[in-house]
Amino acid sequence: MIVSHHIESLAAIVGGEILGTSQQDVRILSTDSRSLPHSEGVLFVAIDGERHNGNNYIQQVYDKGVVSFLVDEKPDLEKFPGAVFLYVDDSLEALQKIATAQRTDFEGTVIGITGSNGKTIVKEWLYQAFQEDEPAVASAEVGKVIRSPRSYNSQLGVPLSLWLLSNQYNIAIIEAGISQTGEMQKLEKMIAPQIGILTNLGSAHRENFTSDKEKLLEKLQLFSASQKIIFRKDIMVDGEEITDLLKDMDAEKIAWSLSGKAKYSFRILDRESEKTMIELVHDHEKLDLFFPFSDDASIENVCHVIVCLLELGMDRKVIKEKISKLEPVEMRLQILKGIHGSTLVNDVYNSDLAGLNSALDVLMQQRNHSHRAVILSDLFQSGMEETELYSEVASLLKFKNIDKFYGIGEAISGHRHLFPGNAEFFKDTSTFLSAFNAAGITNYALLIKGARNFCLERITNELQLQVHQTILEIDVNALIDNLNYYRSIVSHETKIMVMVKALSYGSGSYEIAGLLQHQQVDYLAVAFSDEGLKLRHSGVKLPIMVMNSATADYQQLIDNELEPVIFTLDGLDKFRKACRFSGKVNYPVHLKLDTGMHRLGFTEKEIPGLLEKLPAEEIKINSIFSHMAGSDEEKFDEFSNEQAQLFIRLSGELMKKLDYPVMRHILNSAGAERFPEYHFDMVRIGIGLYGEGISKHLKQVSTFKTVISQVRELEKGETVGYSRSGKLNHDARIAVIPVGYADGIDRRLGNGNISFFVNGRHAPTVGNICMDMTMIDLSSIDATVGDVVELFGKECPVSEIAEILGTISYEVLTSIPERVKRVYIRE
């Protein structure tokens, strides 16, 4: 059952003032104007955050049909007939009060999970343990289970999770994440868990705390009123045993250990590459358990899950069965190139209703396609009656204007009357595959989403464009986090221009530009006009600045509303002429000034000639900009300041001649961080968006990976590769990976000059890099055909490769050709 509240009951909870009138009950909370689930029953919560003020998007949301709003700025009611506004002092605080009330009404057990690492994995594995096999659930007497969607664990995510609670569920699993002091107390008030789980205390957000102990004590506030705390005993925090740090907590301490005595003592009996056998000793009884993971983090997470299940009363035999069937947690969507010109949004391991709207939002962002389709299996453990559930699904699809729908499973097929007449239904995946005509999704964006037991990955494999197994994986969430970091260091008035030239620094063209458009950046910039044309043809509507356009391109620029950079007097004359030919006036252009980079731009000597030609009715100067030559290095700071002062003076002379406001910008990624005094009206973010640069706050975006094609045993003295350059000084296991210099692996990386990451170890290259293949030494690594090899990423930073090659990260990233498949993943 979906929770429903009248606006008056919410006003009573938050102590707000009702403005306007509406009879619509609130069933869904939304805080993102870009990704509304639908309009009926939606309360839009306008959050005034660090980077966006939701009150500024009321009109946009109202135009989509939403009539209920929670705001902390009074609206002009005449602009919104038929709408109702719940006015409060602070929208986020009000949302948290609503969540607290929702939690108070919940009669079941709440499990709260916090820590630095493993929160989401533990939550999802607990959910897996209860998701299927109703007899097992009944034996534990816990009934239906709900958990936080994906990683909704923040000050905003937690209340959105708690809104989903209803007494159809008997247990709720809620994540709580913090990044600084003072946050957990608010989360505890909302979640109020009876059972707490403290996962691994890693290095995340360490920079915001004076010590690991301070970070731990902040996290422990989540359990201040809990009945039980589950934790690993055999760890130290800043030299102190964790049991000592927990001693003042009133809750029962449920300790487990992998190396000593505890209420639950575990011992690893056997560990292979993809499976582990452990022994549990509890109450003088032993239990051997097998699970299909072997890394240290998974073992720790599994132990948390086992202990929690035992504390909840689940039968040991059932636990043993459940743990043996745990599956990898795929919390991230994949965006893949499909056959017949299609794009696939792959979400084949998640079947929750809460995630369906997020997946549909990603589908809608594929602006290079005008048609969209959805393949969806039965949804499980929703806590809703089936008719209500699939009515909600049908409403979502209608609101998102989905052109084609395919349902797989007996439950969804049994409710086909709720869906449009052209929807198709199949009892299982095999039936779908035997009947589906892939030509029917030519040039479509297609979402594939469903429960694991439907094996929808078979559909993905059938529809995915098959290319070689070397991929560049783009972490969309990390890219968005990097964008938001730059937004956080500039003022609300300073605009963001993002450089998407050279395939967005190797990350992809329209895929990245479409994402940035959804994130509402202010400007995009490309190097050449053909790059801008591709973005326009793929549906990108944002203003696009073209850094280096030839005279012959001017008509194409005008026809496609691309904005040229003017850097010569001759170029200015010719573009004005092109505007007159096209009948254009006030066409937007950008002036580039040379303040010391000496690449492109008007020099100081040319300013008088430029002033004589301004203003001109054919054009409108949207911005004046320049480029620092060394903004990333402290040794050039004096020169950088000289450049900035010259820019201020020259741009000031030009602006005096114009009778309208003009934006100014001079800073790139590094400059935006190091020179806040020169942010002016806009900053240009390039390599920093993709995780490379001077900032410690940036996240790795790109992971270049492949798989092992073959492994062979060779004897000492044999040689490997062209020119017999790889002479072995030991008996060796040599693997061939299908990637070479034609894929961006520089030949200078051969002969042991770099090591790639395989199954937790580094494998050095052997012999010369070939055009399409590279050989690596696996002598000390347990790996075989099909295992993944990371060429660069979290374990092998791009910066290290650049240092070996005597170059910069830009060159490494932009050297990866289009033949390497880009795969986009997001939470």
Question: Would you kindly provide a written description of the structure presented here, covering whatever features stand out?
Answer:
It is globular and about 90 Å long. α23 (607-612) links the parallel β28 and β29 (619-625). Strands 21-20-19-22-18-17-41-23-32-40-37-38-39-36-33 form a 15-stranded mixed beta sheet, sandwiched between helices. It has a 9-stranded mixed beta sheet with strand order 7-8-6-9-10-13-14-15-16. Strands 30-29-28-27-26-25-24-31 form an 8-stranded parallel beta sheet. Residues 133-142 have low confidence and may be disordered. It has 5 domains: 7-91, Udp-n-acetylmuramoylalanyl-d-glutamate--2,6- Diaminopimelate Ligase, Chain: A, domain 1 (3-Layer(aba) Sandwich), CATH 3.40.1390.10; 106-324, UDP-N-acetylmuramoyl-L-alanine:D-glutamate ligase (3-Layer(aba) Sandwich); 335-466, Protein-Tyrosine Phosphatase, Chain A (Alpha-Beta Complex); 474-690, Alpha-Beta Barrel (TIM Barrel), CATH 3.20.20.10; 702-826, Lyase, Ornithine Decarboxylase, Chain A, domain 1 (Beta Barrel), CATH 2.40.37.10. The longest helix has 21 residues, at 637-657. The chain is an alpha/beta fold and 827 residues long. It starts with 6 loop residues before the first helix and ends with a strand.
The gist of it:
This protein is an alpha/beta fold. The longest helix has 21 residues, at 637-657.
The chain-level structural class is: alpha/beta
Total domain units: 5
Any idea what the radius of gyration is? 29 Å
Tell me the major beta sheet: 15 strands, mixed
Looking at the structure, the CATH topology of the largest domain is UDP-N-acetylmuramoyl-L-alanine:D-glutamate ligase
